[in-house]
Amino acid sequence: MIKIDVERVEADYGFEARDAYGHTVRIDNSPEGGGTNFGVRPMQLLLMGLGGCSGIDVVSILKKQRQPIEGFSMKLEGERVPNAIPSLWKDITIVFELKGDIDPAKAKKACELSIEKYCSVAETLRQAGCVLKWKVTVNHVTVHQQ
C-alpha cells in the first residue's frame, strides 16, 4: 500500500505532500481561487505524473535496446472539459524529444508502448475519458505524430 501525508503549511491553500521516503511536493490553489503560488495545482500534478510515468517507461525500454540517450525531455499540454464540475482532462498532447544515436523506429515504439500499454497514469486518464495524442522527435526530426 502506498502512503502519502498531506499537510497545510502555507496560508489557506498551500499544502505539502510527503511520501514515505520524505520526498515533498508543494500544492496550492490558483491565485484566482485564493492561492498564493506556493506550489503546483492538483490537476497540473496529473500532467507531471503522466510525464514522469511515461518518461521512466521510455528510458527503460530504450536502455534495454541499448539505445544511447544523450538528452530526453517532454512537453505536455492539456485541455480540460469547459464549464464542467468536476472539470476533467479532455485532451492531452505529449511531445517526446529525444537526442542521441537513437533508432527512430525504436524511439517511436518505446513511446507507443509507454502510452498505449505500460503507463498507469496514461491508462487512468484514458479511462476517465481523456484523449491522449503524442509526437516523437529524435534529434529535432519528427518520427511520429498522432
CATH topology call of the largest domain: GMP Synthetase, Chain A, domain 3
Strand content: 25-35%
Terminal Cα separation, in Å? 36 Å
Mean pLDDT: 97
Order of helices and strands: EEEHEEHHEE
Helix count from the secondary structure assignment:
3
Main sheet makeup: 4 strands, mixed
Helix content: 25-40%
Query: How many domain units?
Result: 2
CATH top level label of the largest domain? Alpha Beta
In angstroms, what is the radius of gyration?
Answer: 17 Å
Low-confidence stretches: none
Shape: globular
CATH structural architecture of the largest domain: 2-Layer Sandwich
Decide which structural class fits the backbone: alpha+beta
Number of strands: 7
CATH superfamily of the largest domain: K homology (KH) domain
Q: Within the largest sheet, what's the order of strands?
A: 4-5-6-7
Model description:
With 146 residues, this protein is α+β, with helices and mostly antiparallel strands. The chain has two domains: 4-33, no CATH class; 42-145, K homology (KH) domain (GMP Synthetase, Chain A, domain 3), CATH 3.30.300.20. It is 32% helix and 35% strand. The strands form two sheets. Strands 4-5-6-7 form a four-stranded mixed sheet. Helix 1 (42-64) packs across helix 2. The mean pLDDT is 97.
Describe the structure concisely.
This protein has 146 residues and is of the alpha+beta class. The chain has helices at 42-64, 104-118, 120-127; strands at residues 4-10, 14-19, 24-27, 71-80, 89-99, 131-138, 141-145. Helix 1 (42-64) crosses helix 2 (104-118).
